[in-house]
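Minimal example, chain plus phosphoric acid mono(formamide)ester.
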Amino acid sequence: MRSLISILDFSVEELDQLICTAKDIAAHPEKYWDACAHKTLATLFFEPSTRTRLSFEAAMLELGGNVLGFSEAGSSSAAKGESVSDTAKTVSNYANIIAMRHPKEGAPFVASLGATIPVINAGDGSHQHPTQTLADLLTIHKEMGRLHDLTIGLCGDLKYGRTVHSLIEAMSRYSGIRFVLIAPEELKLPDYVRVGVLDKHGIPYVEVTSLEDAIPELDILYMTRIQRERFDDPAEYERLKDSYVLTAEKIEAAKENMAVLHPLPRVNEISVKVDDDPRAAYFRQTMNGKHMRMALILKLLAEAEKNPAKKPLEVDGMVYDKACHNAKCISQTEQELRHIAKPSDDGLRCIYCDQLV
Ligand code: CP
């Protein structure tokens, strides 16, 4: 049995296969109407969501399956202090697959250790959002006709924007990819992605602060929201919130076939006047997300049926009882969760949140 916690859980071949399946679902939806009959998806959302939760639910319903779950922590027994692991063990008796969003980094991973059914990470704190990456990959493939030889600009909150972290991990495995990282000093990419992915694999990138200067060379412009809910200091959010706004004037300097992506929700970082530009792909991206989540549910349920056994936790060179000091890591709150670290190029990192221990 497999879960999807990080986009690296899937090989490039598996990602390509998911894209093929998603395209087939979009072209021939009737073929899939009963594909998940008598199966149930549990959506356990401890944080707000529109696209991810509803597209997961739409995906399962369009596959002929059922859906149950909750959309806020306050309406679950987490409000009474129940652990993520106990929640996942319990829900394993009511559903066949779980999609979980949680504010603590590493929570879906901990859920996968407790659950006896596949768990999908639907976003964990500022850490990862692999199913948004599935939507992004299909969008790039459809808009550009390829996933290789692209200059990708990532603009905005690269520190807390979990979609950016997962997208970099995914795109770094395709050839000819170059990143332009456009962010204010305070919101630069965290080291576990910059050093642990880009430097480690020799992927070319530049870090800049001007969107206007960068835009003419981009094939993809991936805009992100400044993540207000992740800031410890509200004054810092107020100072940084309008760092970048893509306007109809600014996009005039872009290539004619550049695609603008955004995981959404948008606050004000893309003017609504850009929406009518054919390069604005962000609402097409939301539909792509549903088709990729359908393909993902099919894949994980098929694999669980073939091989229901859980894999034991195995991480190369793991070190026990190295405390993680990241206040946003699930290891800070989960009852009796053992602290475990893994070796990386720049030291030992927590297996739950990837921060240096
Ligand atoms: N892209 C994304 O995660 O959107 P939601 O927060 O609405 O799910």
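The chain is about 35% helix and 15% strand. The two ends are 30 Å apart (CA to CA).
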